[in-house]
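Dear colleagues,

For the upcoming journal club I promised to circulate an example of a predicted protein-ligand complex. I picked one with nicotinamide-adenine-dinucleotide because it came up in last month's discussion. The inputs are reproduced below in full, followed by the predicted structure.
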Amino acid sequence: MYTATLIPGDGIGPEVTEAARRCIEATGVAINWEEALAGQTSLDKNGSLLPDATIDSIRRNKVALKGPIITPIGGGFRSVNVAIRQALDLYACVRPAKSYQGVRSRFADIDLVIVRENTEDLYAGIEFEQGTPAAASIISETERLSQRKIRPDSGISIKPISAFASKRIVSFAFEYALRHNRKKVTIVHKANIMKFTDGLFLKTGREVAKDYADKIIFEEAIVDNMSMQLVQKPQNYDVLVLPNLYGDIISDLCAGLIGGLGIAPGANIGEGLAVFEAVHGSAPKYQGMNKVNPAAMILSGALMLDYLGETEAAHRLEEALKSVIAEGKTVTYDLKPHRDDRTAAGTKEMADAVIQKLKAIRL
Ligand code: NAD
């Protein structure tokens, strides 16, 4: 029996996490779920966006399934997702992007994995608001050190990239590639422009790659060119390793390549602990409508089972979902030929169909 933390999250989070929880349970792997709050839901209930009890629960259980959490754009509170990743040092964000038969997309044969550095870069959350004394101070000190001008009415975001975190994430990508029988790791950067941050990421990555030279192919790509290559020839790629910001953008691009956010799962992994969540957000306009696709969260659940060493159950869960999607009958609106298709299933009904398949597979 495992114990895992379950964070329902905001918006559509409770619906999709419940669907995933039921599907995971139907694999026969016994999990005792410890429910914990985070995000707007938590703020409304107990006045805290990210209670210590939630972080403690993940630390204790070492594994969590998490629904999406709202982050206000521009102002308001800082991302709770980023706070969780930083508090637990979940340094690797792993997002597989796989084609599934029955999902309408431009390509049918994509099978790649994004490994995104999760703790630093422009997402470190170190920012100075325009017009504040702190912004003025950082501007004047930077001008003094760099002998370059910065407009006085600028806001400033800091982009730290360390050798430590670069080595850790590139090593993770290679180890992941080895464990999952992958052939190639491509490091993605913009080192031609940002020589001391992306440049360090690349230099460190090249060093790490030497240790794997006889086992895994290593390639380098500049992020803008990578975006074009992925849209034209995604089949040429296998494992991609990227700094935080590019990783975020490229993983949504890859979700688009395989047919949308509804089927894109993810994992945030640290030393001995991991939080599994879909790539998509809280889609507030669909909240409580039993309408959105639970597949991304179910696939995140399969990643969680795999992480726990329940490889066979993970495989069965993915196969069950795959066959529901391939049949195209009991699937949500986004997997139907037309978005207003009246035969579209609800979130719960699609999860029920997966559970039925799992039962059939077990017989
Ligand atoms: P979103 O992913 O929530 O929704 C964008 C659109 O994608 C939706 O309107 C919907 O059409 C589609 N979509 C998303 N999930 C779907 C699903 N399961 N099935 C079918 N269609 C689906 O992105 P957004 O609108 O940019 O963000 C909404 C909120 O979510 C924001 O507050 C944002 O900060 C937050 N967010 C949270 C996370 C997270 O918790 N990890 C990730 C991304 C965004």
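Two points we might discuss: Residues 163-179 form the longest helix (17 residues). The chain has three domains: 1-95+261-363, 105-120+161-258, 123-159.

See you all on Thursday,
B. R.
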